[in-house]
Design goal:
By secondary structure, this protein is an all-beta fold. The protein is about 0% helix and about 50% strand.
């Protein structure tokens, strides 16, 4: 309505169908599953092509670390560039990699094998949660990280936290109804919130108990 305070939207960039966006140090990235990449530098209104020499398609994610290293996850694996995309190195070839986070110099990502971790700037990766299924989500929380994965034995999605950079993990889903579709875990203030088919669950004790 005319007196609405809601923000207005306009179509600003359209690289192709199935577009995604992600923040970068020098400006936001837009990219497509087909492997097209654009960036809008900070304080500008112009989108420019980047990473034109990336060798793969089927792009799942773009992630830039605090130090400026860029990772692109695709169906073939995880690629790394330390020179703004001039050259790329395949650093993980265990299937696709998607959501990534950085915590005190440690990198973690959801992958086709679960949750993978690197403590050497993304050169080498180890599976730290691998239960037969894929990684669903990885999120920063206060003092650590939270993850959702699929366990093929229990046929449920599991929710865990780590407070040592992803070395060890604690299950926090004992109070949640088992489900194949647990989708998200975030921390707001001191509370955890979990997206679940039954609704939104909240925990005020780091996942020991949950309430709908």
């Amino acid at each position: 309505t005319a007196n609405s305070s809601a923000a207005s939207w306009k179509k600003e960039v359209f690289p192709a169908a199935h577009s995604s966006i992600t923040p970068g140090k020098n400006g936001i990235f837009a990219y497509t599953y087909a492997g097209e990449f654009l960036q809008k530098p900070n304080e500008t209104s112009t989108w420019s092509p980047v990473f034109s020499n990336f060798p793969e398609k089927e792009v799942r994610t773009v992630y830039e670390t605090a130090g400026g290293t860029v990772f692109i996850g695709c169906d073939k694996g995880l690629f790394k560039s330390t020179n703004q995309g001039k050259t790329w190195k395949l650093v993980h070839n265990g299937g696709w990699a998607m959501k990534m986070v950085e915590s005190n110099g440690v990198l973690l990502a959801t992958s086709q094998v679960g949750i993978i971790r690197s403590s050497d700037g993304g050169e080498n990766w180890d599976a730290v949660i691998s239960e037969g299924g894929v990684g669903i989500a990885i999120e920063l929380i206060k003092g650590g990280v939270a993850a959702i994965t699929y366990n093929t034995t229990s046929e449920t999605r599991r929710v865990r936290t780590s407070y040592d950079g992803g070395k060890t993990w604690q299950a926090i889903d004992a109070g949640l109804p088992p489900s194949l579709s647990i989708a998200s875990i975030v921390q707001v203030g001191e509370s955890f919130f979990c997206g679940h088919p039954s609704g939104i669950y909240r925990s005020s004790d780091k996942g020991k108990t949950w309430e709908l």
